[in-house]
Amino acid sequence: MQPTLLTSIPNIALLLGTLTAEQISRMRRVKDEVTKLKRQFEQMLDIVEELEQMNHHDAKTKHWMRQLRDYIYRTDDIIDLYRIDAERRKAIESAEKLVKEQS
Fold first, then answer.
1. CB-hemisphere CA count at 13 Å for 74?
2. Dihedral of the CA atoms 54, 55, 58, 60 (nearest 10)?
3. Nearest in space to 43 (alpha carbons), one of 51, 54, 55, 31
4. For the chain, how many structural domains are there in total?
5. Is residue 24 part of a domain?
6. Tens-digit pLDDT profile for residues 5-21
7. pLDDT by residue (tens digit) across 39-48?
8. Would you give the distance in Å from CA 84 to the centre of its chain?
9. Residue whose C-alpha is closest to residue 73's, from 36, 34, 44, 32
10. Does the pTM exceed 0.90?
C-alpha cells in the first residue's frame, strides 16, 4: 500500500520539526561562539592598549601593535554587523509568523 499525502503529513511535520530544531540549535551555537569571539577580541584590545602605554617600544613593534589594534577593531565591526543582521532576520521571521497567524 502506497502512502497517501494525508498519511505522509505526520512524517513531513516531524521531519520539518526536526530540521527546525537543528537549525535553531546551530544558530544558538553560532551566537555563543560570536559572543565568545567578541569577548576575546575585547581582551586582546585591552592588552594592546596596555602595551601601547609602555612607551619603550621600537618603531617596528609600535607599527605591529597599531596593525593589530586596527585588525581587532575591524573584526569587532564584523561581529557587530553579524549581530545586527541576525536581529534583523529574527525580526523579519517574527513579523512573517505574525502575518501568517493573522491570515
1. 6
2. 70
3. 51
4. 1
5. yes
6. 556 666 666 666 666 76
7. 888 888 888 8
8. 9
9. 44
10. no
